[in-house]
Amino acid sequence: MSELNAPFSGGPTLNDGVTMPWLGLGVYQTKDGEEVIHAVKTAVELGYRSIDTAAGYNNEEGVGQAIRECGVARDELFITTKVRNPDQGYESTLKAFEVSRRKLGLDYIDLYLIHWPVAGKYRETWKALIHLQKEGLIKSIGVSNFQIHHLKDIIEDTSVVPVVNQVEFHPLLTQRELLKYANEQGIQLEAWSPLMQGNLDLPLLKELAGKYDKTPAQIVLRWDLQQGVITIPKSVHADRIKENAGFFDFTLSDEDVKAIEDLNRDHRFGPDPDNFNF
Q1: What is the tens place of the pLDDT at every residue in 207-222?
Q2: What positions are marked as the site Lowers pKa of active site Tyr (predicted)?
Protein backbone atom coordinates (compact mmCIF):
# COMPACT_ATOMS: atom_id res chain seq x y z
CA MET A 1 0.00 0.00 0.00
CA SER A 2 2.59 2.53 -1.11
CA GLU A 3 -0.07 5.23 -1.50
CA LEU A 4 -0.29 5.33 2.29
CA ASN A 5 3.03 7.15 2.32
CA ALA A 6 2.09 9.81 -0.23
CA PRO A 7 0.97 12.99 1.56
CA PHE A 8 -2.35 14.25 0.24
CA SER A 9 -2.00 12.62 -3.17
CA GLY A 10 -4.21 9.71 -3.98
CA GLY A 11 -6.51 7.90 -1.65
CA PRO A 12 -8.89 4.96 -1.65
CA THR A 13 -11.09 4.36 -4.67
CA LEU A 14 -14.69 4.23 -3.48
CA ASN A 15 -17.13 1.62 -4.75
CA ASP A 16 -18.45 4.10 -7.35
CA GLY A 17 -14.98 4.67 -8.83
CA VAL A 18 -14.39 8.07 -7.19
CA THR A 19 -11.07 8.64 -5.39
CA MET A 20 -11.28 10.24 -1.94
CA PRO A 21 -8.29 11.63 0.02
CA TRP A 22 -7.08 9.69 3.05
CA LEU A 23 -6.95 12.86 5.15
CA GLY A 24 -9.51 15.63 5.51
CA LEU A 25 -10.18 18.58 7.77
CA GLY A 26 -13.20 18.21 10.02
CA VAL A 27 -14.99 21.44 10.97
CA TYR A 28 -17.41 20.22 13.65
CA GLN A 29 -17.92 22.94 16.31
CA THR A 30 -15.90 25.40 14.22
CA LYS A 31 -17.63 28.77 14.23
CA ASP A 32 -19.00 30.09 10.96
CA GLY A 33 -17.27 33.17 9.62
CA GLU A 34 -13.64 33.98 10.25
CA GLU A 35 -12.81 30.90 12.34
CA VAL A 36 -13.91 28.30 9.81
CA ILE A 37 -12.66 30.37 6.84
CA HIS A 38 -9.20 30.58 8.40
CA ALA A 39 -9.13 26.86 9.31
CA VAL A 40 -10.11 25.74 5.82
CA LYS A 41 -7.72 28.11 4.07
CA THR A 42 -4.88 27.05 6.37
CA ALA A 43 -5.56 23.38 5.70
CA VAL A 44 -5.66 23.90 1.94
CA GLU A 45 -2.41 25.88 2.05
CA LEU A 46 -0.81 22.97 3.92
CA GLY A 47 -1.95 20.51 1.25
CA TYR A 48 -5.30 19.23 2.50
CA ARG A 49 -7.81 18.69 -0.30
CA SER A 50 -10.74 17.20 1.64
CA ILE A 51 -13.07 19.28 3.84
CA ASP A 52 -15.85 17.70 5.91
CA THR A 53 -18.79 19.82 7.05
CA ALA A 54 -22.52 19.28 7.69
CA ALA A 55 -25.72 21.30 7.65
CA GLY A 56 -25.91 20.71 11.38
CA TYR A 57 -22.52 22.36 11.94
CA ASN A 58 -23.97 25.72 10.84
CA ASN A 59 -20.78 26.72 9.02
CA GLU A 60 -21.41 25.77 5.39
CA GLU A 61 -21.38 29.42 4.27
CA GLY A 62 -17.93 29.99 5.75
CA VAL A 63 -16.63 26.76 4.25
CA GLY A 64 -17.98 27.86 0.87
CA GLN A 65 -16.31 31.26 1.13
CA ALA A 66 -12.99 29.62 2.01
CA ILE A 67 -13.30 27.29 -0.98
CA ARG A 68 -13.85 30.25 -3.30
CA GLU A 69 -10.93 32.20 -1.83
CA CYS A 70 -8.37 29.44 -1.27
CA GLY A 71 -6.79 29.61 -4.71
CA VAL A 72 -7.16 25.91 -5.48
CA ALA A 73 -9.34 24.76 -8.37
CA ARG A 74 -12.71 23.35 -7.35
CA ASP A 75 -12.08 20.03 -9.07
CA GLU A 76 -9.00 19.49 -6.92
CA LEU A 77 -11.06 19.68 -3.72
CA PHE A 78 -13.27 17.04 -2.13
CA ILE A 79 -16.17 18.54 -0.20
CA THR A 80 -18.44 16.55 2.11
CA THR A 81 -21.62 17.73 3.78
CA LYS A 82 -24.53 15.99 5.50
CA VAL A 83 -28.30 16.22 5.78
CA ARG A 84 -29.54 17.24 9.23
CA ASN A 85 -31.76 14.89 11.24
CA PRO A 86 -34.83 17.20 11.23
CA ASP A 87 -34.59 17.45 7.42
CA GLN A 88 -34.70 13.71 6.77
CA GLY A 89 -37.37 12.14 4.59
CA TYR A 90 -37.56 12.10 0.78
CA GLU A 91 -38.89 15.52 -0.22
CA SER A 92 -37.41 17.33 2.77
CA THR A 93 -33.96 15.91 1.99
CA LEU A 94 -34.17 17.20 -1.59
CA LYS A 95 -34.96 20.67 -0.25
CA ALA A 96 -32.28 20.49 2.44
CA PHE A 97 -29.67 19.53 -0.13
CA GLU A 98 -30.43 22.65 -2.17
CA VAL A 99 -30.04 24.79 0.96
CA SER A 100 -26.63 23.24 1.66
CA ARG A 101 -25.52 23.60 -1.94
CA ARG A 102 -26.56 27.25 -1.97
CA LYS A 103 -24.78 27.99 1.31
CA LEU A 104 -21.62 26.30 0.04
CA GLY A 105 -21.96 28.05 -3.31
CA LEU A 106 -21.11 24.88 -5.24
CA ASP A 107 -22.48 23.38 -8.43
CA TYR A 108 -22.06 19.89 -7.00
CA ILE A 109 -21.11 18.14 -3.75
CA ASP A 110 -18.41 15.47 -3.81
CA LEU A 111 -19.91 13.42 -0.98
CA TYR A 112 -23.32 13.79 0.66
CA LEU A 113 -24.06 11.80 3.79
CA ILE A 114 -27.07 10.94 5.95
CA HIS A 115 -25.82 12.35 9.25
CA TRP A 116 -27.60 9.87 11.58
CA PRO A 117 -29.91 6.87 11.01
CA VAL A 118 -33.15 8.53 12.13
CA ALA A 119 -35.68 5.74 12.71
CA GLY A 120 -38.54 5.76 10.24
CA LYS A 121 -36.80 8.23 7.95
CA TYR A 122 -33.36 7.06 6.88
CA ARG A 123 -34.65 4.64 4.24
CA GLU A 124 -36.51 7.43 2.38
CA THR A 125 -33.61 9.79 2.92
CA TRP A 126 -31.32 7.28 1.21
CA LYS A 127 -33.66 7.14 -1.79
CA ALA A 128 -33.46 10.94 -2.03
CA LEU A 129 -29.66 10.76 -2.09
CA ILE A 130 -29.81 8.21 -4.89
CA HIS A 131 -32.05 10.57 -6.87
CA LEU A 132 -29.71 13.54 -6.33
CA GLN A 133 -26.75 11.48 -7.50
CA LYS A 134 -28.62 10.46 -10.66
CA GLU A 135 -29.33 14.15 -11.28
CA GLY A 136 -25.58 14.82 -11.24
CA LEU A 137 -25.70 17.07 -8.17
CA ILE A 138 -23.67 14.71 -5.99
CA LYS A 139 -20.69 12.64 -7.07
CA SER A 140 -20.84 10.12 -4.23
CA ILE A 141 -23.41 9.21 -1.59
CA GLY A 142 -22.91 7.66 1.80
CA VAL A 143 -23.95 7.56 5.42
CA SER A 144 -22.69 8.48 8.86
CA ASN A 145 -23.14 6.71 12.19
CA PHE A 146 -24.86 3.67 10.62
CA GLN A 147 -24.65 0.34 12.38
CA ILE A 148 -24.62 -2.92 10.42
CA HIS A 149 -28.41 -3.34 10.63
CA HIS A 150 -28.98 0.19 9.27
CA LEU A 151 -26.66 -0.52 6.36
CA LYS A 152 -28.44 -3.79 5.59
CA ASP A 153 -31.79 -1.96 5.56
CA ILE A 154 -30.88 0.54 2.87
CA ILE A 155 -28.92 -1.94 0.77
CA GLU A 156 -31.84 -4.39 0.81
CA ASP A 157 -34.28 -1.58 -0.06
CA THR A 158 -32.37 -0.12 -2.99
CA SER A 159 -29.44 -2.41 -3.91
CA VAL A 160 -27.31 0.75 -3.71
CA VAL A 161 -24.33 0.33 -1.37
CA PRO A 162 -23.09 3.50 0.37
CA VAL A 163 -19.56 4.46 -0.62
CA VAL A 164 -18.68 5.69 2.89
CA ASN A 165 -19.80 5.15 6.47
CA GLN A 166 -18.42 7.91 8.66
CA VAL A 167 -18.40 6.78 12.29
CA GLU A 168 -16.74 7.43 15.61
CA PHE A 169 -13.56 5.37 15.38
CA HIS A 170 -10.45 5.51 17.56
CA PRO A 171 -8.29 3.29 19.80
CA LEU A 172 -10.95 3.15 22.53
CA LEU A 173 -13.71 2.33 20.00
CA THR A 174 -12.24 0.10 17.31
CA GLN A 175 -15.55 -1.04 15.76
CA ARG A 176 -14.10 -4.36 14.57
CA GLU A 177 -17.37 -5.96 13.43
CA LEU A 178 -18.47 -2.82 11.62
CA LEU A 179 -15.08 -2.46 9.91
CA LYS A 180 -15.16 -6.11 8.84
CA TYR A 181 -18.68 -5.77 7.42
CA ALA A 182 -17.79 -2.52 5.64
CA ASN A 183 -14.76 -4.13 4.03
CA GLU A 184 -16.84 -7.11 2.90
CA GLN A 185 -19.44 -4.81 1.33
CA GLY A 186 -16.97 -2.40 -0.26
CA ILE A 187 -17.96 0.44 2.08
CA GLN A 188 -15.13 2.81 3.00
CA LEU A 189 -14.98 3.51 6.73
CA GLU A 190 -14.18 7.08 7.73
CA ALA A 191 -13.26 8.10 11.29
CA TRP A 192 -14.77 11.08 13.04
CA SER A 193 -13.35 12.06 16.41
CA PRO A 194 -10.23 10.01 15.56
CA LEU A 195 -8.26 11.81 18.28
CA MET A 196 -10.80 11.03 21.00
CA GLN A 197 -11.59 14.70 21.56
CA GLY A 198 -8.01 15.21 22.69
CA ASN A 199 -7.99 12.34 25.19
CA LEU A 200 -4.61 11.09 24.01
CA ASP A 201 -3.00 10.75 27.44
CA LEU A 202 -2.60 6.99 27.23
CA PRO A 203 0.72 5.37 28.23
CA LEU A 204 0.93 3.23 25.09
CA LEU A 205 0.45 6.22 22.79
CA LYS A 206 3.13 8.14 24.66
CA GLU A 207 5.47 5.16 24.42
CA LEU A 208 4.91 4.77 20.68
CA ALA A 209 5.27 8.50 20.13
CA GLY A 210 8.74 8.26 21.62
CA LYS A 211 9.59 5.13 19.66
CA TYR A 212 8.68 6.65 16.29
CA ASP A 213 9.60 10.26 17.13
CA LYS A 214 6.02 11.36 16.48
CA THR A 215 3.19 12.83 18.54
CA PRO A 216 0.43 10.67 20.05
CA ALA A 217 -1.99 12.23 17.54
CA GLN A 218 0.22 11.22 14.63
CA ILE A 219 0.46 7.68 16.01
CA VAL A 220 -3.34 7.38 16.13
CA LEU A 221 -3.85 8.86 12.67
CA ARG A 222 -1.24 6.51 11.22
CA TRP A 223 -3.04 3.63 12.92
CA ASP A 224 -6.24 4.68 11.14
CA LEU A 225 -4.43 4.81 7.83
CA GLN A 226 -2.84 1.38 8.13
CA GLN A 227 -6.28 -0.11 8.63
CA GLY A 228 -7.51 1.59 5.48
CA VAL A 229 -9.69 4.04 7.38
CA ILE A 230 -10.05 7.64 6.16
CA THR A 231 -9.54 10.20 8.90
CA ILE A 232 -10.79 13.77 9.40
CA PRO A 233 -9.26 15.32 12.54
CA LYS A 234 -10.72 18.68 13.52
CA SER A 235 -8.65 21.71 14.51
CA VAL A 236 -8.72 25.48 14.08
CA HIS A 237 -5.03 25.96 14.95
CA ALA A 238 -2.48 26.12 12.13
CA ASP A 239 0.22 24.23 14.05
CA ARG A 240 -2.18 21.42 14.94
CA ILE A 241 -3.59 21.21 11.41
CA LYS A 242 0.00 20.83 10.19
CA GLU A 243 0.86 18.28 12.88
CA ASN A 244 -2.21 16.21 12.04
CA ALA A 245 -0.93 15.80 8.48
CA GLY A 246 2.45 14.46 9.61
CA PHE A 247 1.71 10.75 9.60
CA PHE A 248 2.48 9.75 6.03
CA ASP A 249 6.25 9.32 6.45
CA PHE A 250 6.47 6.38 8.84
CA THR A 251 4.94 2.94 9.35
CA LEU A 252 3.78 1.29 12.54
CA SER A 253 4.83 -2.32 13.02
CA ASP A 254 2.12 -4.97 12.93
CA GLU A 255 2.72 -5.54 16.63
CA ASP A 256 2.18 -1.88 17.44
CA VAL A 257 -0.99 -1.74 15.32
CA LYS A 258 -2.32 -4.69 17.31
CA ALA A 259 -1.29 -3.12 20.62
CA ILE A 260 -3.28 0.01 19.80
CA GLU A 261 -6.26 -2.11 18.76
CA ASP A 262 -6.09 -3.86 22.13
CA LEU A 263 -6.79 -0.51 23.86
CA ASN A 264 -10.42 -0.91 22.78
CA ARG A 265 -13.01 -0.41 25.52
CA ASP A 266 -16.05 0.13 23.26
CA HIS A 267 -16.03 3.64 24.71
CA ARG A 268 -17.91 6.39 22.88
CA PHE A 269 -17.25 10.09 23.33
CA GLY A 270 -20.24 10.82 21.09
CA PRO A 271 -23.80 9.41 20.99
CA ASP A 272 -24.65 5.77 20.41
CA PRO A 273 -26.50 5.50 17.06
CA ASP A 274 -28.87 2.91 18.55
CA ASN A 275 -29.66 4.98 21.65
CA PHE A 276 -29.77 8.57 20.48
CA ASN A 277 -32.57 11.11 20.87
CA PHE A 278 -32.85 12.27 17.27
Answers
A1: 999 999 999 999 999 9
A2: 82
